[in-house]
Amino acid sequence: MDTVVACEAVKRSFGATERNVLDGVTLGISPGEFVAVMGPSGSGKSTLLFALSGMDRVNSGTVTFEGTDLTRLSENELADIRRQRMGFVFQQPTLLRHLDILDNVVLPAISDARISRRRVAEKARELMRRMGISDLEDRHITQASGGQLQRVGICLALIHDPAVIFGDEPTGALDSTAAAEIMELLNEIHRAGTTIILVTHDPGVAARTERVLYLFDGRLAGEFLLGPFDGTEAALGTREEQLIAWLAERTPHHLMTHEKEARGAVETR
User: Fold this and answer.
1) Which of 54, 139, 160, 238 could disulfide-pair with 78, CB 3.0 to 4.6 Å?
2) Pick the residue with more confidence: 173 or 113?
3) Closest Cα to residue 179, out of 198, 159, 157?
4) Given this model, what pLDDT does residue 254 score?
């Protein structure tokens, strides 16, 4: 198997509009890759992520995951694959307010007959230790910061040992310091062998990945190969500069200005 996730000639539109949010996208992600999806707002980034993970049905084309054509599966079959083989990290982690943080991490795996409840709890505690949030085990979610809750979200994504983690703006609601910490954790997970595909507006986030896919008006308009990231600030600065220059060649000036303003608003929160 050359790819773990792939799509061919995928199109997706919504409602009565004739405009395709995704317009014939073809791409492949190899096992163990760390890939960022970028592009202006409305270019189809999140729609592509949802299509690749089977969370959204495409109008035409094929989507394959570990060799299985997701477009041919029932909703129950898709749910099984997502639960067993995929992890998700969103901009805001989906947590239950009436449970403490450990119970939130444990909950997705409780129904898995392959692993005992005791082992699930042990695994959840180990993940929380790796994420540096062991002291939050008994706390309510209102007693944790945004960065800490995003670490909880990563624990949720990893509880099933997924083949692929899908991230939709996982640092979008965080300040620059917390965002860097989350990306360091994701880089650690990637180095352990997990494939990661994330959507981001931030070149500083994308510069930590290995390959950047650029969407424009629902089409794959280019890709930039960054290669492995050694984790140093010097390398990060060079990679970010190269990526920003590459993006500037592909994005109309008024859209680049809008994206910079949007990133600045997040960083000042």
Assistant:
1) 54
2) 173
3) 198
4) 43
State the Cα–Cα distance between residues 13 and 252, nearest whole angstrom.
Answer: 24
Residues shown for the chain: 269
What's the rounded Cα separation, in Å, for the pair 246 and 248? Answer: 5
243-262 burial code (b ≥16 CB/10 A, e <16): beebbeebbeeebeeebeee
Largest CA distance in the chain: 55
Q: Residue 178's Cα: distance from chain center in Å?
A: 16
Task: Please give the Cα distance from 71 to 237 (Å, whole number).
Answer: 40
- For 185, phi then psi, to 5°, come to -65, -45
Look at residue 19 in the predicted model and tell me its pLDDT: 83
Q: Does residue 244 have a pLDDT over 50?
A: yes
Domain 5-22+34-267 has CATH 3.30.1360.120: no
Helix H or strand E segment including 17: none
Domain boundaries of the chain, sorted by first residue? 5-22+34-267
Q: In the predicted model, what is the mean pLDDT of the chain?
A: 89
Q: Smallest Cα–Cα separation from 54: which of 84, 91, 24? A: 84
Query: In degrees to the nearest 10, what's the CA dihedral of 195, 200, 205, 211?
Result: 50
Give the global pTM.
Answer: 0.89
Torsion of CA 238, 239, 245, 251, to 10 degrees: -150
User: What token pair was written down for 81?
Assistant: 């694959």
Cα 34–32–12 angle (5° rounding)? 60
CA distance 203 to 263: 10
